[in-house]
UniProtKB/TrEMBL annotation:
This is RND family efflux transporter, MFP subunit. It comes from Propionispora vibrioides. Gene3D superfamilies: 2.40.30.170, 2.40.420.20, 2.40.50.100, Helix hairpin bin. The lineage of its organism: Bacteria, Bacillati, Bacillota, Negativicutes, Selenomonadales. One of its GO terms (cellular component) is efflux pump complex. Transmembrane segments: none annotated.
Length: 352
């Protein structure tokens, strides 16, 4: 009899335990835990930020006006130079020989001019005495004019050679910083080949790349703030100066230049900057992409009311970084499910 009661109690206890586990599993299954987000216009309005680089407003690519072998480099990258400073020097030996040649030509032309002038003066007296004809005098007058033209031509060639000799030294046309060097001493360069990049002192800008779907936001920006990675706590106001008319062939983005209204004193070329853009227009609602639940061709979201979910259709706009803009269907204060939306059904109870 005791053995019978012991078996009965064991079976009863096992049944109670199984019932409790089943109820717990049922509760856990029927009332899932979900991640939610409360819609707020101020909190969910995305202001995109773009990484950029500090650049100079005026960047000049310097080159020689004559070709030759570089024999001396007087600057390094980052060197601050003043207007008139010599930056690079080309071997002037060949150019000097050209100058010597043209100088000799000038001397020869001057000698021919003196001879032609003496002959003209002599034959003018003979013409006055009636010893020669007018035709003979005209020949010597023409010879004098030819000699004068030859002097002018030789003088011009000599001046051109002197200019080429001066071009053998590349000088800075304004105060600035050497941002790039493309050649080394001993290298032979041609006329017009870029050898240095000079960033002029003065205005500094931020160069950023904008995707094509954000161009209007940049153009209509009401406020632009620029922060710098190397200068924590410092913020500068920016203004859009220019936007490239065509997209880059590789990145398919548009280059834009943001001028700084109040640049920091410690700002250096090449620093990394972040440009935050606040665009004008109506405030938008952005929700995570994971919150969308597609039924057919209609996007929906699960809205939680009194711990129950209901499917609500929405109208979507622009897509951002793991977020989507909601143009219609949601209002400030709505609570939506932003994770696990595929496991819910209409009217289901949820735990937030």
């Amino acid at each position: 009899m005791k053995k019978y009661y012991r078996n009965y109690l064991s079976l009863l206890l096992a049944a109670l335990l199984l019932t409790g586990c089943s109820q717990t599993a049922s509760i856990s299954e029927d009332i899932p835990l979900v991640r939610t987000q409360t819609i707020s216009l101020g909190a969910n309005n995305q202001n995109p930020g773009y990484s950029g680089e500090v650049r100079g407003r005026y960047e000049t690519a310097l080159s020689f006006q004559t070709g030759g072998k570089i024999i001396q480099r007087q600057v390094e990258a980052g060197t601050h130079v003043k207007a008139g400073d010599v930056l690079l020097t080309i071997d002037p030996k060949d150019i000097q020989q050209t100058v010597n040649l043209t100088a000799a030509q000038v001397a020869s032309a001057d000698s021919q001019l003196s001879l032609a002038q003496s002959n003209l003066a002599r034959y003018e007296k003979l013409y006055e005495q009636g010893a020669i004809s007018r035709a003979q005098l005209d020949q010597y007058q023409n010879a004098y004019e030819v000699a004068q033209a030859a002097v002018n031509q030789a003088s011009a060639q000599y001046a051109q050679g002197n200019n080429q000799l001066n071009y053998s030294q590349l000088t800075a046309d304004s105060d600035g910083v050497i941002a790039g060097i493309n050649v080394e001493a001993g290298q032979v360069v041609s006329a017009g080949q870029t050898v240095l990049t000079l960033v002029k002192d003065g205005m500094r800008e931020i160069e950023i790349n904008i995707p094509e779907n954000k161009l209007e936001e940049l153009k209509n920006a009401s406020h632009i703030q620029v922060t710098f990675w190397a200068l924590p706590g410092i913020t500068s106001e920016g203004k859009v100066r220019e936007i490239a008319p065509m997209a880059d062939k590789v990145t398919r983005t548009y280059k834009a230049r943001i001028s700084l209204v109040n640049p920091p004193a410690d700002l250096q070329l090449g620093m990394t900057a972040t440009v935050n853009i606040n665009h004008t227009g109506n405030q938008s609602i952005f929700i995570p992409l994971a919150a969308l639940y597609q039924t057919g061709d209609t996007p929906n979201v699960w809205v939680v009311t009194d711990n129950q979910v209901a499917l609500r259709p929405v109208k979507v706009g622009a897509f951002g970084d793991n977020a989507v803009e909601i143009l219609d269907g949601l209002h400030e204060g709505d609570v939506i499910v932003c994770a696990g939306v595929q496991k819910l059904h209409e009217g289901q109870k949820v735990r937030l």
